[in-house]
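ok so i was messing around last nite and threw this chain in just to see what happens. nothing serious, just curious
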Amino acid sequence: MLGFVGVLAVAGCAAKGEVVPINLIPVVQSSSQKPDAVVVVLPFEDGRAEPNTLGSRKHFWGGQSYFEIPGGQSGDAVAKAVSDYLKAKGWNVTMAKSADSMAQDRPDVILTGKILALAVDAESKFMKTEMVTKTKIAVQAKNAADDSTVRMTLNGAGSQSVVWFDAQDAEKLLNDVLGESMEKLTTDTKFDNKMLRLK
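result:
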């Protein structure tokens, strides 16, 4: 579990009831992987009880503001975040809107997923705001060569306390946790003859 303690000098405040956009841009650790397999990522399913929500902030003087992924399409946003992350790690990855639209890509591996948890919540108290985030994403990679499947669940959690809250604090915390959880996709797998395998 990640633990963060920080003091920020820049003050920022969302109005009560306001919807605050949070972009998913997971932090990528360096990598030297350069697999030659073609991986296609399809939009993920949002399996949460309240899809397309991302959490909220309780204000010190009462009321709440809410966090939301721009456009409200969490499944698409998470799939794009995974795709961007793997590209940055050196994988040959493309996105496709559906299984029917990816024929021209001739993928060696098709990656799909389901969002089980994705939230960042904040509570402002006297002289501090406490934030917590939790992510849980089930991913499945299907190998075209032999129809075999690799499944794993990417879990992440983190917390941070700041004196002056800014929406970028919540965004950074969520993306730090996402990046750490997505690291499992590359550290716990390997490519063998253009097929993805668990190590």
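not much to say yet. Residues 1-13 have pLDDT under 50 and may be disordered.
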